[in-house]
Amino acid sequence: MTTVDRMPPRWHRGGVSELNATSAALLGLLHDGPATGGQLVAEAGEGYGAFFSVTRSQVYRELPALAEAGLVRLGKQGARSSQQYVITPAGKKAFKQWVNVDPGPDHMRSTLILRLVNAEKVTDKQRAKLIVAARERYEADLEEAKVKAKSADDPTAKAVAGFAQAQAKAALKLIDAIG
């Protein structure tokens, strides 16, 4: 029985069309070397935070499925029962296939902006509080992105930081229009 034959239904012979973005994000991070679930959560926030969120629960749900599918294997056992994961050759192949498939429409997801566009449905006091909090959040995001852009050591990291700056500026413009 091959690894592909043992793969759960999300992954199937002949392709990885069902490899979800969270799994792909984890495989992408594991290309840089072994990591524990906690390290992957932190690295995802650092590397993907401007455009893609990965929650702790998603990481700890996906890792066992990826291991069962043969796309990652268990690595060294760490302190306090932390478990490292290592990408396998099958995982590298699945990741490369996923990267090269048309992603379809792209959807940004922001619960803060969702709240803002619905702010007219709450009291004036609640709306004002929401707008102040949103402004503070996006101003902080903008400053963080500026710092990352200045310290970026490769063109991709610099471009992602530039994207984060543009996103924060766009959100601040939206807040100005609503507020």
Strand content: 5-15%
Number of strands: 3
Encode the helix/strand succession as letters.
HHEHHEEHHHH
Question: In the residues, how many domains can be counted?
Answer: 2
What layout of secondary structure does this protein have?
Blueprint (H helix, E strand, L loop, with lengths): L2 H4 L14 H10 L4 E2 H12 L7 H13 L3 E6 L5 E5 L1 H11 L11 H7 L6 H28 L3 H24 L1
Antiparallel strand pairs: 1-3, 2-3
Helix pairs in contact: 2-3, 3-4, 6-7, 7-8
Describe this entry's structure for a reader.
This protein is mostly helical and 179 residues long. It has two domains: 3-99, Winged helix-like DNA-binding domain superfamily/Winged helix DNA-binding domain (Arc Repressor Mutant, subunit A, Orthogonal Bundle); 111-178. 61% of the residues lie in helices and 7% in strands. The chain is built from eight helices and three strands, in the order ααβααββαααα. Strands 1-3-2 form a three-stranded antiparallel beta sheet. β2 (72-77) and β3 (83-87) form a beta hairpin. The termini are far apart.
